[in-house]
Amino acid sequence: MSKTQIKICGLTNLQQIQECIEIGVTWIGLNCYPKSPRYLRPKAIRELVAEIPEEVTTVGVFVNEPADNVEHILQYTRMQYAQLHGHETPTYVSALKVPSIKAFRVSDQFRLEEIAEYPQGIFLLDSYHPNLYGGTGDPFNWEIAKKAQQFGKFMLAGGLKPENVGKAVKQVQPFGVDVSSGVESSPGVKDLQKVRRFVEEVRKAEGE
Questions:
Q1: Helices marked H in 101-191 — which ranges?
Q2: Which of 38, 51, 185, 187 is the most buried (most CB within 10 A)?
Q3: Of 9, 20, 32, 178, which one is the catalytic site residue?
């Protein structure tokens, strides 16, 4: 069985990124949404990415950003994926000239068929909130996530933390898990003890 990928999103400084990688984090998410408290300017991201080992996947988080901007920022910073957290359409995603991960905000009214309307690749499932694009801190119904397996590889996000991620891995068996606020002491500042416990719980769940 392949290892569950572990993505920490909303990191803001090199020391914490390096410590997370040492702990066992395999994907790093950097925020490109100016309204986020975790936002980083492209120049800062470029400097961080230059110090991240090639085997660690880097992802830029965007919300309703013009496609030209997304492509320019990804190429300039050398991140590997654009994670799209807004109302990006299938046409927008299909035309994008850089690798992307479409995030779907899941409510009880979410139509799983919507995933199939987008180009195949990795996608992300997050909790729905009327005013927030990710980082809600609340989990959604994982039974919906289990049914999403038919559409391909996905990252599971939304309210994950050390206390519940093991259960999520066993129940859903996603390609990866994604956490931000669940391992933070304040926005953009990670609690490394929580990160360590998060990684340990994922690996423990895989072995059960």
A1: 113-116, 142-147, 165-172
A2: 38
A3: 9
- Residue linked to tokens 């719980």: 201
Neighbours of 57 (CB within 10 A): 17
* Whether 12 contacts 188, CB under 8 Å: yes
Among the listed residues 20, 32, 126, 178, the single catalytic one is 126
Confidence of residue 127 (pLDDT cuts 50, 70, 90): confident
Give me the CATH code for the 5-206 domain, please: 3.20.20.70
Residue spans per domain, the chain: 5-206
Average pLDDT over residues 129-136: 54
Q: Active-site residue 9, yes or no?
A: yes
User: For the whole model, what pTM was predicted?
Assistant: 0.93
DSSP 35-52: TSTTB--HHHHHHHHTTS
| Alpha-carbon span 183 to 187, nearest angstrom | 10
Sign (positive/negative) of CA torsion 158, 160, 166, 167? Answer: negative
